[in-house]
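Annotators were shown the component list below and the corresponding predicted structure, then asked to write short factual statements about the assembly.
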Amino acid sequence: MVELKNSLYNTAAPSTQSIHGDDHLHATSEVSTPISVSTTFAYNKKEITANNYGLDQRYIYSRSGTPILTKVEATLSTLSEGYAVIYGSGLTAAFSVLVEQRPKKIALGSGYFGIKNVIEQYQRLVPNVQVVGLDCSYNDVDIVWLESPINPTGEVRDISSYALRAHAAGALLVVDATLAPPPLSYPFRQGADIVVHSATKFLGGHSDLLAGVVVSRAPKSAESMRVARSVLGTGPGSLDAWLLLRSLRTLSVRVQNQSQTATRLVAFLESHRRLAVVSACHSPSVQELAIGRRITAVRHASLQLSTTHCSFIETQHPNGYAPVFSIRFATKDQALFVARHLQLHTFATSLGSVESLVDWRHGIDSKEDPGLLRISVGLENFDDLANDWSKTLLALDAHEKGSAKL
Amino acid sequence: MVELKNSLYNTAAPSTQSIHGDDHLHATSEVSTPISVSTTFAYNKKEITANNYGLDQRYIYSRSGTPILTKVEATLSTLSEGYAVIYGSGLTAAFSVLVEQRPKKIALGSGYFGIKNVIEQYQRLVPNVQVVGLDCSYNDVDIVWLESPINPTGEVRDISSYALRAHAAGALLVVDATLAPPPLSYPFRQGADIVVHSATKFLGGHSDLLAGVVVSRAPKSAESMRVARSVLGTGPGSLDAWLLLRSLRTLSVRVQNQSQTATRLVAFLESHRRLAVVSACHSPSVQELAIGRRITAVRHASLQLSTTHCSFIETQHPNGYAPVFSIRFATKDQALFVARHLQLHTFATSLGSVESLVDWRHGIDSKEDPGLLRISVGLENFDDLANDWSKTLLALDAHEKGSAKL
Amino acid sequence: MVELKNSLYNTAAPSTQSIHGDDHLHATSEVSTPISVSTTFAYNKKEITANNYGLDQRYIYSRSGTPILTKVEATLSTLSEGYAVIYGSGLTAAFSVLVEQRPKKIALGSGYFGIKNVIEQYQRLVPNVQVVGLDCSYNDVDIVWLESPINPTGEVRDISSYALRAHAAGALLVVDATLAPPPLSYPFRQGADIVVHSATKFLGGHSDLLAGVVVSRAPKSAESMRVARSVLGTGPGSLDAWLLLRSLRTLSVRVQNQSQTATRLVAFLESHRRLAVVSACHSPSVQELAIGRRITAVRHASLQLSTTHCSFIETQHPNGYAPVFSIRFATKDQALFVARHLQLHTFATSLGSVESLVDWRHGIDSKEDPGLLRISVGLENFDDLANDWSKTLLALDAHEKGSAKL
Amino acid sequence: MVELKNSLYNTAAPSTQSIHGDDHLHATSEVSTPISVSTTFAYNKKEITANNYGLDQRYIYSRSGTPILTKVEATLSTLSEGYAVIYGSGLTAAFSVLVEQRPKKIALGSGYFGIKNVIEQYQRLVPNVQVVGLDCSYNDVDIVWLESPINPTGEVRDISSYALRAHAAGALLVVDATLAPPPLSYPFRQGADIVVHSATKFLGGHSDLLAGVVVSRAPKSAESMRVARSVLGTGPGSLDAWLLLRSLRTLSVRVQNQSQTATRLVAFLESHRRLAVVSACHSPSVQELAIGRRITAVRHASLQLSTTHCSFIETQHPNGYAPVFSIRFATKDQALFVARHLQLHTFATSLGSVESLVDWRHGIDSKEDPGLLRISVGLENFDDLANDWSKTLLALDAHEKGSAKL
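Structure shown to annotators:
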């Protein structure tokens, strides 16, 4: 079992870990790591004897590991306070957890529909696997699969309380923290046993790579998963892995900036929504009213905080909330009008990228509210984004008035 | 269900198919396809109405497909006379066939050990899966998994006869044709139902990409596998897929050249082995004798042909045999001596690449003969390779004599 | 002449420009731009008649332009408030300015030695080219080549005053602003005619791409340079250009963070240097003294500001100073001791990357002070970097004391 | 001065040289070379003393060299029987020869127009540079710039005789052998002093990389050019260089196959042209006549050979003629009709790629015959290409007859 982490950086700040967590793995003098593509590695002719076939070499065949995979895993392990194994996508990572743990009963809440599809594939193979709700009894439950923050709302679940319940029932707590990677959240601190991420999202951050991560608290479990990955060939592509390493170098500045902008944008939209609601008393300018008039709800961890007594939210997010929130309109048509009219928010699925994205989740997941849009906030300037929303919401209001007149 | 193949090229020669099989999929004027990396695709704002959310778009999220994947699959479908789906590795492809077919009983012969590991992973999930030998009764067998040509010997199995037996028993015949991609072999012509390849090998051909392919005779099965791949995220990486497309352009010239050189090299080695055996009668030069003296066997489809009445071998290989053969020595030490001394054959695992490779399979798979080396012949010149063997085998002979004296 | 800029974003914030400056150039629905590699582009068969050979097509041959080059240039044009042309390296860009302008007399100050080598190559071709100092008379000078901020000190020159003098003499003012790209500085606002950057540094920002930029105030000059680039083939590589586009997406957060950390680090080191100087009066702890004792000077724009009346410095740097500074020791041995002992500052040449770099400039440019180190501050956490300096400077002090005793 | 070549392979066959010419430069156990992207290289901390700053390290900054550039140059040096330096494009390579040699008088024949543009750029810098024809007196000529084979005809010039004349006049003979790289031609064997290639063409071979090569007979000249390249930043991009290395692995099989197919296609077209001319006597089928009826000329080295006594052609081309030929029609309209109707020949500029290309050179270079098409033959099957021509030429004939009736 190879220890990939360099303990030197365990106490460094996340931004430092992101850049130096793989320093001990540089194989040449190249300061920026080359893009490893080789699928096979020459045996060291000198060391190989009849009794030593070089199987102590770190790399033999790329399905089992490459210099880039090792560097990414070392860096992510340090950053995530656990033992990371990377995969070809977030759902590949999720499936790999199921294959590793072979649960017979899974507790699962609402959230990203993809995990439900993965469990269905798993159920096609393993007979009699039961899925119960997060708030059901955990009797006989093997795995509690918790999403926090929640997709698509950006709200937070209380990891500690689920950890207590899961552990009391002898179940593992898996936390999908895709919407808030380090340094935004650290689920092991609240008792998670396994953390999964779609690295395609914030860890990758540029909409140009597909990868997933499983982080185990225990190094042994990570090693066992790495063996299965080696057999099934479920690691990421060479360029995907290299781009992920490149992306990790800027992780902290990206996600902290996105988190701050998102939280400001949520406050901006929510204040306009409220303004419209209470406008009779305050009589603000007509335009100010029109901006918020069609919004029926804004949801995000920052609003959760302000309306309920939820100290766990702050605890779970020492460096900011997820840069993802949701906004609701009365109708599907209104939601789609907004998605189509925003200029600085690309109308496409996915989240976590440098460019702001708006997605109408009902289109992909019919269980979602047809009036809801999921917003993933990018690295654009707050004023520019707020302005984009103002113009779009005013256009919606004008359009609705026009329609009403007809 | 999208038909990826351009029927225009169904009757073209393989070299033409390799280059033009994806002509109809060019999205811009770029003659060489760009490396698609985007994980998400913008919805067409004009076409999207409340009732048409763009789900008729070909690309939405890269886990489900990308322009490169489509081009590779179109080209491979045309080349392989079936419907191709690509995966992150050859073993990922194999596992996906199992997940799709969910067999309860599998008939499997000797050959590449990786498939056994995959079946073990499958058995961890699906209870009571039985594995029987290729020559056992096919009673209740769901899948006959046939490797031809066989790894590591390069010899051939009679696909037609296995197809007859499999189909008589109601089983599917899966053929792993990794060692002989088109234009070397076309297993559907002998009755295969599914063909799998490790595209990392000859299809990729440069030791720099990891990918696998499943080719189905039926388009429906391919489409169903593509859906599962989309859920499980088991497709290849972006650069791997692009490099595979680039590699396909030269497939025919590469593998036909490699096949010819391999067949000549096999003849060269076998003639020297025989010469040493019969030397008493012919008294050739001492050096000529020394070259072949330590070889105990050479195995390859071309030698199969010459010694038995096997017309199926020629039929299955209209354009040449696998560029892979095996050579056996009396001891592990002799085999490793040879592997270490060859200059133009890189001592590393894998096969199918532009550079010749020598692998001591016993090191990876303890069931293999410790005296056996697997040779994958590259694009080097025949004379240079033969010379490399002569020098190495002479050195081995000298070394053995020296050892004997001590 | 193609106008690449999208005027929509002229008034947006730099972070928004970095992400959306090329929105109008998306050719497919891919949200993240594919890596264009094609060297040739198919003619549109429908539009081509005998009289219209498709030469109105944007792309014909990649030496003349590619979709990626266009996107990078559009984004950089918007960001830089001019018309950008990109090249294979910063020095290629500099040489291209000389070829375009064909100066007979150049005024040049101290700074990066590379430009001197470029001028030498130019002088090998063009006879009788004179080079005079920045502070000499500009009589007959064609080009004033000004570096600001200055390499390696990180200090600033007063662009406006040089612009006045240059223009009064009929000369062009070229500003090499490599150490402070947008949003840190905007030399056109102070009267520059042409701005050049080594995009390998902060614009690229990850030590993994080689490129240069010339930004002209006039679109005509940019177009003329693009024609010469097309003839001489001096554009950047395909991956270099694509990585540059990816890097621009994070430009603002990267360089503003690096600028802030650098300014804090400069203050930290300078305060320790002063503390040691004035220690007799203040009697701080021995260790505090030891940190700054061996530093003979720290130089950076932020210190320039505090010691002289230089309002131009603030004006030229609305969003922060260069993330590059220099530190001087008494001897070459001391400087090299520090360069070798720093852990979080990679001892390698270059600057502008995510990882902090330390370079001993005398090794490359013998005119530089042998006691001087150039520091390029990366995205690591300030405390971690300050701690790295403290440990290293204490080790230096201990080492010097040990040496003194011997 | 670093000797890059491994003399071990000087006597190997070209296909072996292509694959093993850089074996001695593998830096890690990776069998397929990683894509080097680092722009800077860490100094070896142990070796660096105050007197040894690591300047003996092979790599310091990527503008001066990278592991990939070195490998490409080592392989090309061995293949080309000289000392290779690579550049960002073929014209960059040509310009670099001029900068290195600073000729005052150049002898230049007809051929690729790009070199004329490069000389114009050179003339803008160096005063009074004269250009004379290839057949003029070489009095005072510094450089004889010879293209062989000639673009666009694919015909050959007698290198030996030009070498004699050039050397008698004290001039250097530069041969642009882009249309016939090794193993098709070896201009040093006929007395060339410098060989240049656009590596974008056959050396690259896939229309996906831009690069150029200068090969010097003298290692000193190569080293001097490498220094200038380092100053001017005119090397190729990182991916371009890596793809070139990948392409070299298949060089021999690609170009020999293309050469054979081209020579057969030329024979096919020429025989149909002649058939039409002499049809009165032989009365072939009407369709057979119609194929060749509109062709006014076919030009290629293979036809040169058959009509004149030119033993130099065979001597210069031990392994085949250029895979490029030209075909002429009576009018511009006819030529464009053909270019538009060919299915397996992509209508785009450039040459040397895996896909067949057809270009109407008059569109780019108005000095070319408007009825001429340049054909670059790819790796498609001969019968498929011949069939493509038959259908297109029959369509042309039908179209012309239809037009005639109107």
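Statements collected:
1. The CA atoms of residues 73 and 84 of chain C lie 5 Å apart.
2. The first strand of chain C starts at residue 83 and ends at 87.
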